[in-house]
Amino acid sequence: MADIFEEVDEELKEENFKKLWDRYGTYLIAAVILLVGGVAAYKFWESYTYDQRQAYSEAFISAIALAEEGKNSDAASAFTIIAEDASVGYAMLARFREASSRRKGGDTSAAIDIYETLAVDDSIEPLYQDLAVLLSVMAQADKDDPKALSNRLAPLAADGPWRHTAGEYIGLFALRQGDTAAARKRFEMIADDAQAPRGTRQRAAELLQTLGK
Q1: Please, what is the Cα angle at 50 between 44 and 56, to 5 degrees?
Q2: CB-CB contact of 73 with 62 (8 Å)
Q3: Taken in order 161, 120, 169, 154, is the CA torsion positive or negative?
Q4: Residue 149's closest CA among 122, 125, 120, 176?
Q5: Rounded mean pLDDT, 61-85
Q6: How far apart are alpha carbons 179 and 194 in whole angstroms?
Q7: Cα separation of 174 and 180, whole Å?
Q8: What average pLDDT does the structure give for the chain?
Q9: Rounded to whole angstroms, what are the CA distances from 140 to 112, 129, 144?
Q10: Cβ–Cβ < 8 Å for 212, 181
Q11: How far is 93 from 163, CA to CA, in rounded Å?
């Protein structure tokens, strides 16, 4: 008797499954297709982005090699192409390297234009915007108004990773304006700062000796 009940139970299960399949089978197949398609699309995108990153990396290394060989014009052109096509991170790095190559190649004006563009580019982190300001000021240090340049560096010298270099340039700008006391104060701050890079501290100490500390 138990066997009969088991057979009837199995038949009921099969019948219920058949009804469910007839009603929802098409949706289930579609769901499986979408799942498989989604996995395939993800794998394709993962492979594509990896290949893109590899391509950008190789192009970037090639451009750096040109810069190290002193082929600044060719390097700048290569970095320009990368910046126009690459992802945000590589594009930003390429723009900084392009500016450096153009400055080394004698086109300081073009380098400053790039730095100024990066300084107001909200798509990059404030850290790199500040770096662009610092590099722009450094590129103009010998020619432009020292007071205006010093004012631009004041926020960077107050805090952040660029504060020591910014402070050093503010001290140099003070010397250009004939304000020896202000320059000495800046250099003392740097020379006494244990967190300042060794090279920056040494230059500050040497400048203080020149000023007769």
Answers
A1: 135
A2: no
A3: negative
A4: 176
A5: 86
A6: 25
A7: 7
A8: 79
A9: 8, 17, 6
A10: no
A11: 21
Which pLDDT belongs to residue 140? 93
Contact of 185 with 193, CB cutoff 8 Å: no
First to last CA, the chain: 110
Sign of CA dihedral 185, 188, 192, 195: positive
CA atoms of 1 and 94, how far apart (whole Å): 82
| Cα-based distances in Å from 12 to 1, 8, 17, 25 | 17, 6, 8, 18
pLDDT single digits (tens) 100-142: 999 989 999 999 999 999 999 998 899 999 999 999 999 998 8
Q: Which amino acid does the sequence have at 158?
A: A
Tokens of 104: 């080394």
Helix (H, G, I), strand (E, B) or coil at 107: coil
Q: Are 80 and 107 in contact (CB under 8 A)?
A: no
pLDDT band at 1 (very low <50, low <70, confident <90, very high): very low
Q: Looking only at Cα atoms, what is the longest distance across the chain?
A: 113
CB 98 within 8 A of CB 80: yes
- Cα 64 → chain centroid: 16
The rounded percent of the chain whose pLDDT value lies above 70 is: 73
